[in-house]
């Protein structure tokens, strides 16, 4: 009994598959998929007021007529003409900084969109010549607001990208002389990395707001460092022993303090600047000796010497009592 049921299910599955195959063959034989190319399709422009409101004019340089590739059932494809292809450029969607505008293509027949027809334009955009438009690149001027602590200074700030493109009506563009990014350094510590808004400025540095003028971006990444300075005493030791019968009385330094700079985190852990004993080798000497020491050679990583980079150390030698 179970074998008979299994056989019936198997036969039904085979029958369904054969039916689907037969249907596909019938459809493709009676109305096969066909590919054709239609040329001379007119490109229409919408929202021309978007350019006119800015005082722009335009003329089509290339792409007023295009060709399209069509794919679909033969019964529908063969009846299509260039007039059934809708190629539209929406000027409101056009980039302020480009001379090219995208073409959107659809197929319509008797006022209805044909969804079963695949259409691909051979030309995807139209090239325009935009009149009365000016484009200029400006280097971003990074400015700061806020105050630093007395022992802090600001390392160079950089903007990424370092320039921005501005486009707009020629008359409006004449007012613009620069672009600035103002970063607030109040309460900032160590590393600075922040997205800062851009502002257009005139010849007097005043901010310009003009809806007809567009920037290629609205913010830039500003990076830099806050450098803290700190004064600490210089300490040193000697290495070796003077000649027999002599001893070290004292070590005199031409400067007893050094000013260091670096991040607050690093400087907090430095309370003195130590000259290693290897810099003052007194082995076998029997009289005073002066050493010239370059302090930056012994500065910790991430720390710079702000004060005089060299110091003289004079080792005073006396006879042993």
Can you tell me about this structure?
- The structure is a single chain.
- This protein has five helices and 24 strands.
- The chain is mostly beta strands.
- The chain folds into four domains: 1-30; 32-131, RNA Polymerase Alpha Subunit, Chain A, domain 2 (Beta Complex); 133-228, YbbR-like domain (RNA Polymerase Alpha Subunit, Chain A, domain 2, Beta Complex); 237-319, RNA Polymerase Alpha Subunit, Chain A, domain 2 (Beta Complex), CATH 2.170.120.
Features of the shown structure:
single chain; 321 residues; mainly beta; RNA Polymerase Alpha Subunit, Chain A, domain 2; 4 domains; twelve-stranded mixed beta sheet; 5 helices; 14% helix; elongated
Give a topology summary.
Layout: H1 2-30, E1 33-46, H2 49-52, E2 57-62, E3 65-73, H3 74-77, E4 85-90, E5 100-102, E6 104-109, E7 112-113, E8 118-121, E9 125-131, E10 133-145, E11 152-154, E12 158-160, E13 163-169, H4 170-173, E14 178-184, E15 191-201, E16 207-208, E17 214-215, E18 219-236, E19 246-253, E20 257-262, H5 264-267, E21 273-275, E22 289-294, E23 304-305, E24 310-319
Parallel strand pairs: 1-4, 10-14, 18-21
Antiparallel strand pairs: 1-3, 2-9, 3-8, 4-6, 5-9, 6-7, 10-13, 11-18, 12-18, 13-17, 14-15, 15-16, 15-18, 18-20, 19-24, 20-23, 22-24
């Amino acid at each position: 009994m179970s074998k008979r049921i299994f056989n019936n299910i198997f036969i039904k599955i085979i029958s369904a598959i054969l039916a689907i195959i037969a249907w596909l063959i019938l459809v493709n034989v009676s109305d096969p998929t066909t590919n054709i190319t239609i040329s001379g399709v007119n490109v229409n422009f919408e929202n021309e007021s978007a350019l006119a409101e800015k005082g722009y004019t335009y003329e089509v340089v290339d792409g007023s007529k295009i060709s399209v590739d069509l794919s679909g059932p033969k019964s529908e494809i063969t009846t299509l003409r260039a007039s059934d292809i809708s190629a539209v450029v929406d000027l409101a969607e056009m980039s302020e900084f480009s001379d090219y505008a995208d073409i959107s293509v659809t197929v319509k027949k008797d006022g209805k969109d044909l969804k079963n027809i695949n259409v691909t334009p051979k030309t995807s955009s139209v090239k325009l010549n935009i009149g009365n438009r000016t484009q200029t690149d400006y280097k971003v001027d990074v400015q700061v607001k806020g105050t630093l602590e007395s022992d802090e200074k600001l390392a160079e700030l950089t903007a990424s990208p370092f320039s921005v493109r501005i486009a707009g009506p020629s008359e409006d563009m004449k007012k613009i002389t620069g672009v600035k990014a103002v970063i607030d350094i109040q309460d900032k510590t160590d590393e600075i990395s922040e997205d800062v808004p851009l502002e257009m400025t005139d010849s007097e540095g005043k901010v310009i707001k003009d809806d007809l003028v567009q920037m290629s971006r609205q913010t830039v990444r500003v990076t830099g460092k806050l450098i803290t300075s700190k004064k600490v005493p210089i300490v040193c030791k000697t290495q070796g022993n003077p000649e027999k019968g002599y001893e070290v009385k004292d070590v005199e330094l031409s400067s007893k303090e050094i000013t260091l700079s670096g991040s607050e985190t690093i400087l907090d852990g430095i309370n003195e600047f130590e000259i290693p004993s290897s810099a003052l080798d007194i082995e076998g000497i029997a009289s005073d000796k002066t050493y010239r020491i370059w302090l930056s050679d012994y500065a910790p990583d991430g720390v710079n010497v702000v004060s005089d980079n060299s110091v003289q150390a004079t080792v005073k030698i006396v006879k042993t009592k």
